Amino acid sequence: MAKQRTLSIIKPDATERNLTGKINSIFEENGLRIIAQKRIHLSRRQAEQFYAVHKERPFYGELVDYMISGPVVVQALEGENAVLKNRELMGATDPAKADAGTIRKLYGEGIERNAVHGSDSPENAAAEIRFFFSDTEIVG
Ligand code: IDP
Ligand code: MG
């Protein structure tokens, strides 16, 4: 399988607890290369746009509030089968249901404060990477 890219976000609950390095180590030790990265504070509008797919879900408002409650680290990851690989490393949305050793099992605090975001398909990955990064900010 060819190299693939995916969008990852280290969420406010994780940056608050200074877990960026530990989470990045998991990516790097498992064949994902961080080819773009920046620490930013999302605006409400950015968070609303990014999660627009969840607009009708009951947790949408809270999710947006949470995502703008502190800094996040947005990053593009590259590697073999990167989208699925990252989803495997992340674990299930609810940390209580995530497999042992996954990022969410290790570091998630709850179903909302679950430490990381990862794209769920190659198509969404491309759109999400474009949402945060220009071509010159991505160095593979
Ligand atoms: P994913 O991040 O595993 O792809 P999604 O269903 O796409 O999960 O949900 C996006 C984010 O919304 C989750 O990562 C989590 O932060 C939050 N979320 C999902 N389901 C719930 C819920 O039932 N209650 C509160 N927050 C939720
Ligand atoms: Mg999702």
What attributes does this structure have?
4 strands; binds inosine-5'-diphosphate; alpha+beta; 39% helix; 20% strand; 7 helices; binds magnesium ion; 4-stranded antiparallel sheet; 140 residues
Shape: globular
For the biggest sheet, the summary is:
4 strands, antiparallel
Look at the helices and sheets and give the structural class: alpha+beta
Query: Whole-number radius of gyration?
Result: 14 Å
Distance between the termini: 17 Å
Let me know the number of strands: 4
The helix-strand sequence is EHHEHHEHHEH
Strand content: 15-25%
Bound molecules: inosine-5'-diphosphate, magnesium ion
Helix content: 25-40%
Return residue spans where pLDDT drops below 50 for at least 5 consecutive residues. Answer: none
Write structural notes for this entry.
The protein has 140 residues and is α+β, with helices and mostly antiparallel strands. It is 39% helix and 20% strand. The protein is built from seven helices and four strands. It has a four-stranded antiparallel beta sheet with strand order 2-3-1-4. The chain is globular. The model has no long low-confidence stretch (mean pLDDT 98).
